Amino acid sequence: MNRLKRVVLGEQGLVILFLLALVIVSITVPNFMTQRNILGLLQSVVTIGIVACTMMLCLASRDFDLSVGSTVAFSGMIAVMVSNHMENIGLGLLAALLAGVMVGAINGVVIAKLRINALITTLATMQIVRGLALIASDGRAVGVDDPAYFDIAQTALFGIPVPIIVMVLTFLLFGFVLNRTVFGRNTLAIGGNPDASRLAGVNVGTIRIWIFTLQGLACAVAGILLSSRITSGQPNAAQGLELSVISACVLGGVSLAGGRAAISGVLVGVLIMGIAENVMNLMNIQAFYQYVVRGVILLLAVLLDNLRTRATGKRT
Description:
- By secondary structure, this protein is an all-alpha fold.
- The protein has 15 helices and 4 strands.
- The chain has helices at residues 2-9, 11-28, 35-44, 46-60, 68-86, 89-112, 118-137, 151-154, 162-180, 182-192, 194-199, 204-229, 241-251, 263-282, 288-312; strands spanning 142-143, 156-157, 160-161, 232-233.
- The strands form 2 sheets. It has a two-stranded antiparallel ribbon. It has a two-stranded antiparallel sheet with strand order 2-3.
- 46% of the residues are buried.
- It is found in: Cell membrane.
- Pfam families: BPD_transp_2.
- Keywords: Cell membrane, Membrane, Transmembrane, Transmembrane helix.
- The chain crosses the membrane at residues 12-32, 38-59, 66-83, 89-112, 156-178, 207-227, 248-276, 288-307.
């Protein structure tokens, strides 16, 4: 019985429930399984998916990052503004990547070296970075001068839009990092027991800085793709992204207590978030109800995390 419970609450159980839900939705919701809708669904979860890959590492190491939405918007703004000013898209993309890395590195240094709680640090950074985006744009969306910038999101390879390909590659990359590298194993070890990891010779502070730096880089990539897709840099973009990303990760089996993560589970969690929104759109349900659904999913994710923790016998 205990073994069955662990399977149901584990990664295999999540995949089975996801496939079951997918079959039910495919049968009951018209036009869900059309190629156009599936590509649209995948496009809609690109931002959440890319950021979730690094949020997975952050949560697995027993940290939080609430600044991801602001960093995505800020990076997108930087990409558009620098591209317009310098008349060079390449420089704009480089500036956006550097901006994201800088925000992430600052978060990491403050948390790891100054020992300020990650929740408070990233909450402050969330406000600061969003404020900088609003100040830089005077609170308005910034249009793109060079139409070639739109090609970043509109180009397709073998019929698959580039943003979806980037998201898939990101999942593959961080799946490899988590499961096949010393960095990934140390990340899980830190989340499981930071003191024991430190005594074992793991440089906990350096790894935490790298995790948040990678988080900033992922946000920058997501911000570039988002600004290209919506054809402008918008300082108010990606509001509430942090909650959606954390919900997807926890729903996918990443423990809020740290020390447990699976990239396949995160992928399923991201798809569940996307399918819920997509189904509501196909059924012409008002957008206001999406807030309720996101909140319910977040509560269910935390409940599942508690059940998983009890099933594995891990104390938080």
